[in-house]
Specification:
Helix content is about 75%, strand content about 0%. The protein is mostly helical.
């Protein structure tokens, strides 16, 4: 009887986590405030071509997630991205991995402050309070950086509440707007040559929209190195993310005419500008308010998530402890630069997302296949290898390099821009 009890206790302690939980980690990491940039940067190629590109980007991101999981299987539990990068690609690989994560985190903090300033200012205006975008940026930064500085437990509680609100407002908005989707708006007669010329500018952002790769090695540990479960969680999470983006593109592009995006882009493509355009393009009451709440929650939850990771990175890099003095120093380094930039340039949401996409493309699509490639050449990765051989690895790697190059060309003003 005691043997049976012991066996039952062992079975309970080694029970494998469910697939859905891991999939939600993947989807939750990917989906955030950046989705407001999707229809803006996809306006040139529009709905049909953007969905095709989303499908291909989802495939490449899922594949690179598998390559990262494959690489992680060769290391101890808890080994992080930079550890694998250093061992496979040397000191330069570690520098690039750490640098891209830090750069993306800093620039996204600014992007979310910029986007948050527009939504806060618009929300204040709706209740009769005039607020400059610079003042709104400072308010957004102070309020939500305070939550992060209060500690991970506070972030956990607040994020849970915000995530629940996001789910309710997103599906509520989608439900209200689906009935007003116009096929004329969604599928206008656009020459393929014209729409395809705008693909390049959107590629890096589409890639970044599936940027869950910072969590992959944690999933390997989470599932106790059961690669089958890791693969299923990656696949389900990628599919959920893709479906949310398709619905988002459908309701936005089905309600806002393509030509109206020229004005949205001219005004900086900020979140409130897009939401206002949606409200003006549909007769459904309550849509603009619901989207404004969703926008506030999406920007806030994305900001606290990214900045918490950045705060920990700063502490680790500078060897600062969790004391009040150490936290204040790390907080100043983490929050002051993006907050000041947000106050000086509050309309830089789309531009900042573009810079983030440049570095994120390296993190998402270039390094994982390179690391897997090195390990296979060493004769490692015997426990698991993603299907597709070197053809699939080179396809993902090549697309990652393309994403980096086209974003560099975009930032240099060498690519056609819609509007």
């Amino acid at each position: 009887m005691s043997d049976t009890t012991a066996t039952m206790g062992t079975a309970q302690t080694t029970k494998m986590p469910g697939i859905l939980g891991g999939a939600m980690i993947i989807a939750g990491t990917s989906i955030g405030a950046g989705m407001f940039a999707l229809p803006v940067l996809s306006a040139g190629m529009w709905f049909g071509v953007s969905i095709a590109m989303l499908l291909f980007c989802a495939f490449c991101a899922y594949s690179s997630g598998l390559y990262l999981a494959e690489s992680g299987m060769n290391y101890r539990d808890g080994a992080n991205y930079t550890t694998v990068a250093e061992d496979t690609l040397g000191p330069m690989g570690k520098l690039i991995a750490t640098g891209t994560v830090a750069f993306v985190s800093f620039i996204l903090c600014y992007a979310y402050i910029s986007g948050g300033s527009s939504v806060v200012a618009q929300t204040a205006a709706n209740v009769g309070v005039e607020l400059s975008h610079s003042a709104a940026a400072i308010i957004f930064a102070v309020v939500f950086s305070s939550i992060v500085l209060a500690g991970s437990r506070m972030v956990d509680r607040v994020s849970t509440i915000m995530l629940g609100g996001m789910v309710i407002t997103f599906f509520g908005s989608a439900g209200m707007m689906t009935g007003s989707v116009s096929s004329a708006n969604l599928l206008p007669m656009i020459p393929l040559a014209e729409s395809s010329s705008y693909i390049w500018i959107a590629i890096p952002m589409l890639v970044t929209s599936f940027g869950f790769h910072g969590t992959v090695l944690s999933l390997v540990k989470h599932y106790q190195r059961n690669i089958s479960r890791v693969r299923q969680a990656l696949l389900l999470g990628s599919v959920v993310t893709l479906l949310v983006y398709v619905v988002w593109q459908l309701i936005i592009m089905g309600n806002v005419p393509r030509e109206q995006f020229s004005d949205i882009i001219a005004q900086g493509g900020n979140v409130a500008t897009l939401i206002t355009a949606v409200g003006q393009s549909t007769d459904v009451s309550g849509v603009e308010s619901a989207l404004m709440v969703f926008g506030n929650l999406a920007l806030a939850s994305s900001f606290v998530g990214v900045s918490l990771g950045l705060l920990d990175l700063v502490k680790d890099t500078l060897k600062l402890d969790d004391s009040l003095k150490g936290t204040i120093k790390a907080g100043a380094i983490t929050f002051l630069p993006p907050a000041i930039l947000g106050a000086i340039a509050p309309h830089g949401f789309i531009t900042a997302i573009g810079f983030a996409a440049l570095a994120a493309s390296v993190f998402v699509l270039v390094l994982p296949p390179l690391m897997a490639k090195v390990l296979r050449q060493r004769g490692q990765s015997q426990e698991f290898q993603a299907r597709g051989g070197m053809l699939r690895i080179n396809l993902v790697l090549g697309f990652g390099v393309l994403a980096v190059l086209v974003e560099i060309a975009h930032l240099a003003g060498m690519l056609p821009e819609f509007g």
